[in-house]
Amino acid sequence: MENNGGNAKAASNSFLKDPHPQSKVKKVIGIVSGKGGVGKSLVTGLLACIMQSNGYQTGILDADVTGPSVPKMFGISEKARGNEEGLYPVESLSGVQVMSVNLLLPNETDPVVWRGPVIANAVQQFWTEVIWKDIDFLFVDMPPGTGDVPLTVFQSLPVDGIIVVTSPQELVSMIVGKAVKMAEMMKIPVLGIVENMSYYTCPDCGKQIDIFGKSHLKEITTQYALPILGRIPLDPSIAERVDAGRIQDITENWLESAKGVLEQLI
Predict the structure, then answer these.
(1) SS3 content of the chain, % helix, strand, coil (to 5)
(2) CATH superfamily of 6-259
(3) What's the rounded Cα separation, in Å, for the pair 167 and 231?
(4) The pTM is what?
(5) For the chain, what are the domain ranges?
(6) Per residue in 180-200, pLDDT tens?
């Protein structure tokens, strides 16, 4: 596996796990949020599609085990397959490699009623037992908060950086701080912040309306000296395309800054 700085991380973190021997992953990027419902999985999917369409091979490790939504947004219905060598991720129509617990369950609506350590172990297996082929960017869609699974990802995977997803509500600024400080404690670089549901554009007059109140994004990014990587509007067409399994059809350039930051890592 290619990963700049991996040796230093391995020396300082005895919990770091080796990937599958046949895997080749250049950069691991965690997508995190301090709370649920802010669109973390959407941002994960969009970033994977953007980088894939720009000539990079991307993959998504869906670490949100109890609330997996990545396969649906890509329209993936087939199950993951494996053999004595390991598990293979399922490729979307656009070529994004995806591994999610929903790709292993008999029915995608089956609940995952597991305790924290079991969930954390499953996430580790998605790294150690899945054969990721020639990945430039592996995006890890993490569950919200600072519990077992985010801690497992930060300790077990050679994470090169995280992107924090937030929404305009004032309460979220405090929760963003928790996610940023956890990353700092684990010595993981924070690449920047993406704000979802930033505004709604009136279809009649074109005016941008702050449905969730005034954005606190600039205050947050100033406080933590982080760049703004994108602002995604509240747009019904986004939900329509995601629900239809066509996230790759979302081609707006809301995350252009994020693309630039990621390309700098390569």
Answers:
(1) 35, 20, 45
(2) P-loop containing nucleotide triphosphate hydrolases (3.40.50.300)
(3) 9
(4) 0.90
(5) 6-259
(6) 888 888 899 999 999 999 988
